[in-house]
Specification:
alpha+beta, Alpha-D-Glucose-1,6-Bisphosphate, Chain A, domain 4, seven-stranded antiparallel sheet, 3 helices, 7 strands
């Protein structure tokens, strides 16, 4: 497994950054290569993306979600990946998003891309586009504030 860790500061309040991030179906607006994210229910998503000239589809499950704190996921079919985005209040109008993602590169194209840092640059670009999108709007387009607990939490 390979790991990506990236962060970015956005000039919006914590709740706005978190709320916008929970609008999963809007991910194609700022995520490079992501063509569609369909929310199947509160905790399941279907992804369609193009990487390395190939189309990939997979399902993911939100394994943990705490409003204004974190959103964690893992794949349940297709591309092997898992990760977490955490949200950190810097002050009333600034928030830091931190992404940690584990994935398994498939095939020679992805392994070569991984070796030269393509995934890290892609995630940093996605975060930069998220920053531009939320800051230009000034407010989130919606939000889901439900709690999803890890199976070992009660």
């Amino acid at each position: 497994m390979a790991t990506i860790e990236q962060s970015i500061e956005v000039d919006v309040p914590l709740a706005s950054a978190y709320n916008q991030w929970t609008q999963f179906e809007e991910f194609p607006q700022f995520m490079d290569g992501v063509r569609e994210v369909r929310q199947l229910d509160d905790t399941h998503l279907h992804w369609v993306a193009e990487f390395g000239g190939r189309r990939h589809e997979w399902d993911a499950e939100v394994t943990e979600q705490r409003p204004d704190e974190r959103v964690a996921w893992r794949n349940v079919g297709g591309k092997d990946n898992a990760g977490v985005v955490t949200f950190h209040r810097l002050d009333d109008t600034h928030t830091r998003l931190m992404v940690q993602m584990d994935y398994l590169p498939e095939g020679i194209v992805e392994r070569v891309g991984d070796a030269i840092g393509v995934p890290e640059r892609r995630v940093q670009g996605d975060l930069q586009r998220f920053k531009e999108m939320i800051e230009s709007r000034g407010v989130e387009s919606g939000g889901w504030r439900g709690d999803v607990k890890r199976p070992d939490e009660h």
